[in-house]
Design brief:
379 residues, alpha+beta, four-stranded antiparallel β-sheet
């Protein structure tokens, strides 16, 4: 046997190294995948921890076990083969040769301090002549989704009806009249606020509309404050005590939350999005700069700066985008849940992710606390 399960981990797996495998001609892997396969070895959280425990063992064990594998997108594999590699894997003894690029490597899993997101690229968007042109483009995009019957997020729905009202497009149509007659007042207020924001951007707002805009803006901020206060109360500590002991964290939490509405994490048949309520939950519980109260101190905290958390969430969801969409096609009424052995691994960290059938993210945090893992194991 050229490579053992343990040698594969310490030579390649721990670094998440991109490799090209060459299989033994008599192996099942050769018959199934051909002579070569490109991709990255994948170890679950428990498998990594077990390997780390024997790091200094002499002599090193040499076991012939199966290793999970994430194939390169360049590989022309069936969905069945991809699932097989993810759930069953490749037997160590089937590998004759491992090729890889000789460059500096790092075990990101072993890092305990804050991490930076590498190789971020800023892409300049198209320029527009003014707000009206931009808003018409935004409406055009939403209108194309609406006409195709694509599901819209709550904020997209509000923007669609606001732009349609603002630009006076088909307001006599049956669907617009149905919107007026069946929509609750809270949603109508949200639509109206977006319409007024559009008028403000285009400098077409009247004085009475300015007064209405101020009132609706204040109401929205007060509603956000209620959500933030409710999340703080879940820490089992009093607001006054929190203000005294966690003043800096509280200010950072408010600063991050008040300017947030809804964020679309990835597009698709079912757009995946983060609502304001769950944004507050993530930042109050799982981000060191904004974490409130001792109850959650040190538990499941992100290893990134709090301004990078949304980017990390997008990395995790986009890595699983095809699996998420396929899951909801097959299970339209069930939540998508990845935890424990099925936790999602990105940049040296394992993440718990739960998405509701409507595409809203309910839970997202790293596994860096044994209590949290044990709690999930009991579900």
């Amino acid at each position: 046997m050229n490579f053992s399960y343990e040698e594969i981990y310490f030579d390649f797996g721990q670094y998440d190294t991109f490799v090209i495998l060459r299989f033994d001609r008599n192996s099942d892997e050769f018959k199934k995948f051909g002579s070569e396969l490109m991709g990255v070895f994948h170890y679950t959280l428990h498998e990594r921890e077990d390997c780390e425990k024997i790091r200094d063992t002499v002599p090193m064990p040499r076991n012939d076990r199966k290793i999970k594998f994430i194939p390169s997108e360049l590989e022309n594999l069936s969905e069945e083969d991809v699932i097989f590699l993810d759930q069953e894997g490749i037997r160590a003894s089937s590998i004759n040769l491992v090729s890889f690029f000789d460059r500096t490597r790092e075990n990101r899993f072993s890092i305990t301090e804050k991490k930076n997101i590498e190789n971020q690229i800023q892409i300049k968007g198209p320029s527009f002549s003014g707000w009206e042109e931009l808003n018409r483009v935004r409406f055009g995009f939403l209108n194309s989704l609406y006409k195709k019957g694509t599901r819209l997020t709550p904020k997209q729905k509000a923007e669609y009806w606001a732009f349609r009202t603002h630009f006076n497009i088909d307001i006599q149509a049956d669907d617009y009249q149905e919107f007026l007659q069946t929509t609750d007042q809270n949603f109508k207020d949200e639509v109206r606020l977006i319409e007024l924001e559009t008028k403000l951007q285009e400098m077409t707002m009247t004085e009475p509309e300015a007064s209405e805009f101020v009132k609706l803006s204040v109401d929205k901020r007060l509603n956000k404050k209620k959500v933030i206060d409710l999340e703080i109360q879940k820490s089992h500590e009093k607001i006054k005590e929190i203000a005294n002991h966690y003043g800096a964290e509280l200010e950072e939490l408010k600063k991050a939350c008040y300017k947030f509405d809804e964020e679309i994490i990835t597009f698709g048949e079912i757009p995946i999005y983060l609502s304001f309520d769950r944004f507050v939950h993530i930042y109050a519980r799982h981000t060191s700069e904004t974490q409130i109260g001792d109850r959650f101190r040190g538990k499941t905290v992100f290893q990134y700066k709090y301004e990078d958390i949304l980017h990390v969430l997008k990395m995790v969801v986009n890595q699983e985008r095809q699996n998420i969409q396929e899951f909801f096609r097959q299970n339209p009424e069930r939540p998508y849940l990845r935890m424990m052995q099925r936790a999602i691994y990105v940049d040296g960290t394992y993440y718990r992710l739960q998405i509701e059938p409507d595409g809203s993210i309910k839970d997202f945090h790293p596994y860096n606390n044994n209590e949290e893992r044990e709690a999930d194991n009991q579900i």
